[in-house]
Amino acid sequence: MKEFRFSSVGKGDADESSFLITTLEAVIEHIQSGALTGSPDPESYYYESNLTEENVNGRQRKNSLTESISTSDTNGKEETLEYIFELIKANHCEQVKAILQKNQKHLQSINLNENNVLKIALDNNLTDDDDDSDTEIYHKLCHPLCNCKKCCCKISKNLLKTSPTVTSRDSHGLTALHVASIHGKANVVESLIEMGAEVNATDLNECTPLHYASSRGHQNALLLLLHSGANIDKANIDQNTPLHMAVNNGHLNCVKALIYFAEHSRRKIRINCVNESGNTPLHMASKWGYEGIARLLIENGAEPSLQNKYNKTAFDYAHNLKIMQVLKSCTPSLYEYIHITSTDVKALNCKSDNPVAPIKLKVVNKVSDTNNVSKAVEKLKLIDRILKAISYGDVKLACFYMNINYSAYVDMKDKPDTPEQTTPCHPLCECAICKKNNETNSSDFDINFTDINGFTALHYASRYGLVELCKILIHNKADVNCYNKKYQTPLHLAALNNKIYVIRLLLDSGANINAIDVAGNTPLHDVCAMGNIGAAKMLLSYNPDLSLQNGSDKTALTLAKEKVHLTIIDLIDKYSSGL
């Protein structure tokens, strides 16, 4: 503006150009000052509360500069919702409270006069069809510097939308109370609640402030929300309750606060509530190994036998013995339903078709089912340890887990395992050989027990070529033709990994040389595909069926030709010509 002078005398149209440039600069500065979306500094529009009939009719405004100075401190450019959130994170409680209270008072006065302003606008046919659209406010004005009554009305209404209050939300749906709960600012939470913040407000994920306080472990903020009427069982978009969130993140203090508050306030909390996956809080505690939380949940009625959508119980997710012991210590809920002894039945004078008996039978059945589940889980964990020991080549440790006396098999290293050795002379024979066989067969472990993929100990021993362990397992009546989920037998795995001595042992023990897996492949198919020459020689010496085709209608010879395994092709040709 200092470059432009009305009285200057210049050549040509210099003054006109300066005027246009200066006007453009003034417009840009005016837009950047925030006058279009809020009160500028030092220039200011009136709040809607100051829009009287005189102002709307175009009369001159009074004391605009004075009022702009008084309002700019409250609704300035820096006082956005993001700025309020930053103050909350920094725990500036008094500053947050002062700003929000001032904004609340201004907005209340705007609301009181809103009806009068709208009535005046309607009387003067000031319609605004796009007032509720998402278009920027300066796109709705006649021009950036317009002060007509229609534009003043629009700007005043925009102030109502942009002034941060306790109910304002950001693009994620978060309110000031959400942010205070996330960062655990208990004094800010208390102030916001006193100012009328909605304790059950939800964001885009349908999470309430209580969800965030629970998931972050802020017990003080959580208790303030609960005492202010927060919904203790509110579920978010994933159907997780605050209890789910506290358990999943291992916050024992918040779990205690939720449960004990519900107990003392006589409010019901669903201990066995399920989320979108069907998991209860106990599922999560069991999965992550939170022993203290699991014990607390069980003491307050959590049921470990409940299944999720994948048919898994808390027992299935338990990965250590301490959690398993906690779950096993639980008394089933049906025990709490009824306790009837024989004397109680006589005192009841029940009819002949006593309904107590079926109830007791159901209790017994449920207990037996729970015991069976726990035993199955223990066996699965044991077989996992056994298979891991076998994969490390530790035969002694594997035998220890299977309760097999390894020392009794020391002298079996160079002896083939034949049925005659394991068959007793007669059932009551006490000779040295039969007595030794009885010692070696004393294991109470189910040798043919499988893991979740159907693998047995013999599968792994064959895969890693542990001949000694294979002999021990076969001696303990392991099934040489057992198969996993892919219908692979131990012979398939030995052939795939070129374990020649294991192949011979399995075939001598009755393994089916023509067994097929889920793809229709025999062990010879696998050998030809892998190019295992030694395994091919061993299998061919036991007269396999060369005409068998797999699921792709290919014989073993066809696979060898496709892979160009010339030695194996030559072996099969010689075997065929020998037939």
UniProtKB/TrEMBL annotation:
Gene3D superfamilies the UniProt entry points to: Ankyrin repeat-containing domain
Entry keyword annotation includes Heme: no
SUPFAM superfamilies: Ankyrin repeat
One of the protein's GO biological processes: early endosome to late endosome transport
Listed InterPro entries: Ankyrin_rpt, Ankyrin_rpt-contain_sf, UPF0507/Ank_repeat_27
ANK repeats: 172-204, 205-237, 238-259, 277-309, 453-485, 486-518, 519-551
GO molecular function, one term: guanyl-nucleotide exchange factor activity
This protein's GO CC annotations: early endosome; late endosome; neuron projection; plasma membrane; transport vesicle; tubular endosome
UniProt keyword terms in alphabetical order: ANK repeat
The protein's name in its UniProt record: Uncharacterized protein
Organism: Spodoptera littoralis (Egyptian cotton leafworm)
